[in-house]
Amino acid sequence: MTVIPHARWCRLAAIGVATAALLAGCGRNDDGEASAPPPIAAPAPTPAPAPPPAALKAAADVGAPLSTSQLDAVVAATTAATFAGAARCDVQMVDITYTTVAPDGVTPVDASGVVMLPSGAACPGPFPLVAYSRGTDLDRERALAMPGDEEAQLVAALLASHGFVVAATDYLGYARSTWPRHPYLHADSQASAGIGALRAARELAAQRSLALDGKVFVTGYSQGGHASMATQKAIETSLAGEFALAGAGHMSGPYNLVGTVEGALAKLPTGDLGSTYYIPFAVTSLQDVYGDIYRTPGEFFRAPFDETIESLFPGPSDVSIVDLIAQDRLPLLLSSLVTDDFVRAALDPASALYRALALNSPTGFAPKAPTLLCGGSRDPVVPFSNAETTAADFQAAGAASVLVYDVEDEPSYAPLLRDPLVPVDIHAGYHASLVPPLCLLQVRNLFLPL
To answer: Does the domain spanning 56-256+366-447 belong to CATH 3.40.50.1820?
Structure first.
């Protein structure tokens, strides 16, 4: 409903009264005879909504379908092994290329991804559709459709094998994308990449006569949790007529970018585990999008790292974080990377950096669909406070169905989350491999009844 300001309402009312008086005076002709009323114009037909743009450009099966026994073996090697239950469907992985838009929201670009199609006697359909967004990767060549991709196989095993068609994007700047650089943690382009993958999956399902039931879900892990929240926000605020969003499950994501960076700076000189790569990856990506975050890399990053920092992420497949540190292209300590000017800008609400971080925190809405925020409260990479503060913001905005789930609160999970040889504050595997299967299981538990 549009609210009309009071003064304007008064003007409209006066115009209405004057028009009524004029029409009353014109009700008779000069001879006193009643005039014929003017014909009533037929209402203009309501234009049909424009169809969504075609997205799918190419699709190719990736080998034979993964069998239920193969998918059960994937789960058996994870923390979800004894909790997930047996797979019901075989899953065909399909490598896709599709059209989406650049960070400007207008320029058409190509992206790649994978669609996971369930099949088998126990899975007749029709199927709901899930958009999955993956975690941070430094390998620009990585594609989820690559045979043996561990993240894609886990999603196939825990979601697609239980009756969901899954569309997962590789994002802009990866694999076969025609965009030259990945806009890391840029909310709008992550959302548009996920929405393009959903559209491509619908087209693929139609081509293969695979029935969909119309329900749509979104989920993702780590960077993908941030991306899936941005996708939910885009759907619920702009695309509700196209997608019937039934539920959302966001896992271990840096939803509040301002708070995430502030939290890492509060732990100087070390920062959070991984902050020496995710902070420069995000800042240089946002600089690439907006152009006003810093004047030169040396303003925010110390020498000698400032000389190469803009070209590090993502990089060649044979270069890891360990390699970058060993080659003195990244430091171990966050204080050895960021300058005092960076710290001041990150804490100053008037700075371009702070504004960009706030703009790309996809938290400023009240979710309508049931929404789960899952993670681990001992996570050394993405603080669990992201889930807690975001849920509080959602509830304050009027969201009625938001749940926070901490895997540490489940007693049966506790032994699976401990490594006696590695303290949790330096245990990268806690975030990367121990929590994801358990959270994905909770997401499935949310989606299945819906």
So the answer is: yes
